[in-house]
Amino acid sequence: MTADTRQKTLNQAQLVPIVLDEGQRGYDILIGSGLLDEPSSWQGLSKAASALIVSNETVAPLYLQRLRAQLSKYYARVDAVLLPDGEQFKDWASLNLIFDRLLETASDRKTVLFALGGGVIGDMTGFAASVYMRGVPFVQVPTTLLAQVDSSVGGKTAINHPLGKNMLGAFYQPARVIADLDTLDTLSQRELSAGLAEVIKYGPIADAAFLDWIEVNLDALLARDKSALAYAVKRCCEIKAWVVGQDEREQGLRAILNFGHTFGHAIETGLGYGEWLHGEAVGCGMVMASDLSVRLGLMPAEFLPRMRALIERAGLPVVGPPLGAQRYLDLMRVDKKAEGGEIRFVLVEGLGKAGMHAAPDELVEMVLATHCA
Ligand SMILES: NC(=O)c1ccc[n+]([C@@H]2O[C@H](COP(=O)([O-])OP(=O)(O)OC[C@H]3O[C@@H](n4cnc5c(N)ncnc54)[C@H](O)[C@@H]3O)[C@@H](O)[C@H]2O)c1
Ligand SMILES: O=C(O)C(=O)C[C@@H](O)[C@H](O)[C@H](O)COP(=O)(O)O
Ligand SMILES: [Zn+2]
């Protein structure tokens, strides 16, 4: 089926294709209201005797039964496993709960895993799918804004290590992404803001006009206006699909999606995961990375206040926790982009363009002194 034909079979949904290996592989991202209860969302996935829904204690009471009802039309058995909720549980113990359930239910190598939840559930389900019997299919059903605009797309899967964020994982693509915008109705305002951090990220790194659009439409996004959310999710997925389509395994270009993350991951790991949300750490990290972009002469001075104002308006923190400069530097040397102990930051090189840069420690210390409590 071509993307055009598929689009016609989907009622109100938007369809963003992601094309890998020059069309040899790929999948669709479906975006729209009511997709959870829409039979066509679930049609045409690989045939299997069973499905396993992976979710958590918070999301399952809200959406599990509806997903199960749809999947029961296609799979003779639909099981579920609920993981503890939170970034601090994105670890081996939770991952093992998925393997335990797969084995208890004698799931075979065709069993399809469905990740119903935010980025934590998506990252862990994808990792489990990549490993179980050396690989089974999985589908992303993202229910947070962050997961709909970012984590469900592109095939990065992982768990955290106490010494480093997302340090253990695999590149493993889902078979489909189904983003029902209505699930965002039940999200807390804090989690909505966390998702906006990754929305904002796409502007400076890839699309200056989108940054302008976010500035104009931020209040509508914060008020959960459905058409504003639909546009934001679609545009973010288009940009991510464009980046991942060119560089699936982060040999170069894909690193731009890490804007703000070198500082952000240091905050998350430094605080022990969960105290700051990923989106909050990335928001604050983007303030720091914007400042570094200015200090290295890559961006004009007005870029920093522009980014800081937008991130603050989105309800995100703009002052980092007082971990101490040395601790920040030590944590950032563990970042996956570091090479030979040299920290490499994704910095903005002009609105809509980003690249990787090293920076003298003294300059980074000045950035930290300016933006940390
Ligand atoms: N793989 C990637 O490319 C990628 C990209 C960005 C972030 N991530 C990862 O994603 C994670 C962050 O994802 P997140 O922000 O979605 O956090 P999350 O998965 O922890 O979800 C946030 C909170 O919202 C709850 N929740 C989820 N959906 C809900 C709904 N519809 N209504 C009410 N509550 C709901 C969850 O139970 C949780 O408490 C981090 O671990 C981060 O590293 C991965
Ligand atoms: O998809 C990517 O590539 C990203 O970098 C998206 C990020 O928002 C996401 O947080 C990702 O998990 C970070 O990747 P990591 O390789 O730095 O762990
Ligand atoms: Zn991120």
Describe the structure.
Pathway: Metabolic intermediate biosynthesis; chorismate biosynthesis; chorismate from D-erythrose 4-phosphate and phosphoenolpyruvate: step 2/7. Its EC number is 4.2.3.4. It comes from Roseateles oligotrophus. It is found in: Cytoplasm. Helices cover 45% and strands 19% of the residues. By secondary structure, the chain is of the alpha/beta class. The chain has 2 domains: 3-186, Rossmann fold (3-Layer(aba) Sandwich); 190-371, Dehydroquinate synthase-like, alpha domain. Strand 7 (156-161) and strand 8 (164-171) form a beta hairpin. Helix 8 (208-222) packs antiparallel against helix 9, helix 10 packs across helix 13 (325-332) and helix 11 packs across helix 14 (361-371). The radius of gyration is 20 Å and the shape is globular. The model has no long low-confidence stretch (mean pLDDT 97). The site of zinc ion has 5 residues, from helix 11.
Number of helices: 14
Category from helices, strands and their pairing: alpha/beta
Relative strand content: 15-25%
**What proportion of the residues is helical, as a percent range?**
40-55%
Count all strands and give the number.
Answer: 11
N-to-C terminal Cα separation, in Å?
Answer: 54 Å
Give the uncertain stretches in residue-range form. none
> How many structurally independent domains?
2
Listing every helix as H and every strand as E from the N terminus to the C terminus, the arrangement reads HEEHEHEHEHEHEEEHHHHHHHEEH
Supply Rg: 20 Å
Main β-sheet description: 7 strands, mixed
What is the fold named in CATH at topology level of the largest domain?
Answer: Rossmann fold
Mean pLDDT: 97
Shape call: globular
Strand order of the largest sheet: 1-2-9-6-5-3-4
Ligand set:
nicotinamide-adenine-dinucleotide, ligand LNCXM5UN, zinc ion
CATH class of the largest domain: Alpha Beta
CATH architecture of the largest domain: 3-Layer(aba) Sandwich
